[in-house]
């Protein structure tokens, strides 16, 4: 079980820290596993400076490594208004994200019409009124629709062919704004995990960016169970909180799925005394969403076996912050996160706010690289 959390901190400002601008990584490391790795033992508070290539030595035979296999799609569409002025449409998710088929794309012989209506951010928002259009390319335009909560807009993709094909051809990789640069061809590969499978995310599950095919093969050969789940990452996950108090914040919902085979593997691992290693906060949120639902269900058959997981799919808006009762995660591999972000708060819920912020201060002093393309942190 995690160490006791720091005294209850419900103010957003309690999750602030100072970061020199030059420590924000705007480019990936030369190799995926060349990143550094800060190891925090949450029971003792001990810190260890390592390299990510050391990570496969940590999970033991019989443990489970849980990966989020979502794929980032080129969600940023640049175009022009009929006047010739520049405009941008940032696709977030199909308007019906609860429908798995809407996120997975058309099946064999499908028309793809389910992906034509999207929720999006548009710029310049004040001038793109309902009924206006943005021309992305010949034969591909976007009609601007009604306003939604949170500054979002409904948009309709109109063009020749499957909408997913149009997005893949004309979209660009949606790099976080703090990188302060346009995306390039290298980002198409590196802002994507090597195990990315099901498209649907507008931001990468960044802890997994460090893993290589060789590292995963080595882990599996050593007896570690590699388990894949899915959570399509939305923009809200990475945004700093606007509310003054954590209990006033509401997370944007994100679509997730845990297959029955994954649930059964995790139950066997737990039943045999193995540990569960979550790769990234998104994997952690799926594990906790499912485990919390099982615990609350009162299912007698699962209570009898002690199983914590079952097949599930749907939307989650789980917001994890201190104090929190963890059910599905023993260890967490993660990156260094923005101040005041829900991701930083999740890590603090696992290891204690004071310990985590002390680790971040150590990382600053040791010149670790921060954020999506930055170095990694392992919470034991």
In words, what does this structure look like?
The protein has 380 residues and is an alpha/beta fold. The protein is built from nine helices and 17 strands. It has helices spanning 100-104, 163-170, 185-190, 213-221, 260-271, 281-297, 300-305, 342-351, 353-365, and strands at residues 36-40, 47-51, 64-68, 70-72, 76-80, 86-94, 117-123, 133-137, 140-147, 153-159, 198-201, 225-231, 254-258, 276-279, 312-316, 331-335, 376-379. The strands form three sheets. It has a nine-stranded mixed beta sheet. The protein has a six-stranded antiparallel beta sheet with strand order 5-6-7-10-9-8, with helices on one face. Helix 8 (342-351) packs across helix 9 (353-365).
Summarize the structure.
The protein is α/β, with parallel strands linked by helices and 380 residues long. It has helices at 100-104, 163-170, 185-190, 213-221, 260-271, 281-297, 300-305, 342-351, 353-365; strands spanning 36-40, 47-51, 64-68, 70-72, 76-80, 86-94, 117-123, 133-137, 140-147, 153-159, 198-201, 225-231, 254-258, 276-279, 312-316, 331-335, 376-379.
């Amino acid at each position: 079980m995690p160490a006791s959390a720091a005294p209850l901190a419900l103010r957003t400002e309690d999750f602030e820290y100072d970061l020199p601008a030059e420590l924000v990584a705007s480019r990936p490391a030369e190799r995926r596993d060349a990143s550094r790795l800060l190891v925090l033992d949450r029971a003792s508070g001990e810190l260890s400076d390592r390299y990510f290539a050391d990570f496969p030595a940590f999970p033991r035979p019989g443990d489970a490594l849980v990966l989020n296999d979502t794929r980032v799609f080129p969600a940023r569409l640049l175009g022009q208004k009929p006047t010739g002025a520049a405009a941008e449409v940032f696709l977030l998710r199909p308007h019906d994200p609860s429908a798995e088929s809407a996120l997975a794309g058309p099946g064999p012989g499908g028309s793809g019409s389910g992906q034509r209506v999207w929720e999006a951010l548009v710029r310049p928002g004040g001038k793109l009124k309902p009924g206006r259009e943005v021309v992305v390319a010949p034969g591909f335009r976007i009609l601007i629709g009604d306003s939604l909560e949170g500054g979002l807009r409904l948009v309709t993709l109109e063009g020749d062919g499957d909408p997913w094909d149009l997005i893949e051809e004309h979209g660009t990789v949606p790099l976080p704004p703090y990188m302060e640069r346009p995306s390039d061809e290298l980002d198409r590969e590196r802002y994507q995990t090597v195990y990315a499978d099901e498209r649907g995310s507008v931001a990468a599950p960044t802890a997994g960016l460090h893993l290589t095919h060789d590292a995963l093969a080595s882990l599996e050969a050593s007896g570690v169970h590699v388990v894949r789940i899915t959570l399509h990452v939305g923009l809200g996950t990475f945004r700093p909180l606007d509310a003054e108090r954590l209990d006033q914040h509401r997370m944007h919902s994100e679509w997730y799925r845990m297959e029955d085979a994954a649930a059964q593997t995790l139950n066997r691992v737990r039943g045999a005394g193995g540990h569960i290693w979550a790769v990234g906060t998104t994997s952690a949120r799926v594990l906790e969403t499912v485990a919390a639902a099982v615990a609350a269900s009162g299912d007698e058959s699962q209570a009898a076996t002690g199983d914590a997981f079952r097949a599930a799919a749907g939307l989650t808006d789980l917001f994890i912050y201190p104090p929190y009762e963890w059910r599905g995660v023993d260890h967490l591999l993660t990156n260094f996160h923005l101040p005041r972000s829900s991701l930083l708060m999740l890590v603090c819920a696992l290891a204690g706010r004071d310990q985590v912020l002390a680790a971040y201060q150590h990382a600053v002093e040791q010149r670790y690289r921060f954020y999506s393309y930055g170095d990694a942190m392992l919470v034991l």
